[in-house]
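Q: My labmate handed me this sequence with no annotations at all. I'd like to see what the chain might look like in three dimensions before we decide whether it's worth expressing. Could you predict it?
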Amino acid sequence: MRVLTDRLIHWLTLYCTVWCAAFCSAQAQSTVGVDPVAKVFSAAPGQVITQVLNVYNPNPTTQKLKIVAYLSDMNISETGESVYPPAGSMPESLEKWATFSPSDFELGGQDIQQVRYTITVPKDAAPGTHWGMLMFEAQDPAPVPGKTLASFRLRVSHTIYVNVQPTTQAGNILGIFEQQPKTKTDIYQLGVQYGNTGNVVNGVRGRVEVRDAQGVLVATLDLPLTVALPGRNVLIKTSWGGPVPKGQYSALVILDNGQPGSDIAGDYVIDLLTDLIAPQTIPDSDAPSPAAVSGAAAPAGGKP
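A: Here is what I predict for the chain of 304 residues:
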């Protein structure tokens, strides 16, 4: 399971970085971080697991932030979108297994706070992956009426996966779907629906080998690393852009779910209905000047 663990942590590191950037870029003085961003544990029923995290404020500021910690569940839809229901909402939740301390603290500029959590696996725990997220939400310790820290919550997370033995890793391709380009400068899109039929979380990635009518390899499309929760399906997407002549192509889908020596393959016939050309770019001489852009009027009722 070493490959699976590394892939999950890599994916979660990227996800956490993008998530924090999206929520915190407008309030750069108020960002916080957590290290590590994820852990995957292998455990037996009745085992106790302890982990120490570092929650930090990287900003050289005199302003202190109040950090509140809490548990949350997490689910991933079939289209790959993550949602965060309250802890205890899902049957695989760690809510009744996890304790942590401290639950709130303050962070000054460039401060670090250690947070310790303990997972107590019940003796009658069901085999398979159980998971949860330890959230850290930044709040203004001394809010001024009318001057809030931000109009959205600033938070980062540490994701916990506990694989209770024995685990079974298995999965298959349930379907391959396409979206034809609407114009010559558009892209052809392909989606592969993967079903995790085992009881353990998978990190799934792969490629699509596209060949023409003569069997010549004309493109290799990347299927990015995606987390597939046990007992659930997820859609992994890729795309193909021009220049490509219209016609019939064969696509070989190859997925790797971390199971050694056991790639998952599927075939699909692509009937490309239109020629694709490379997307048109604006020559530098035709590009608007920065002065022209900065002088543009903002849309009514909103911010540029």
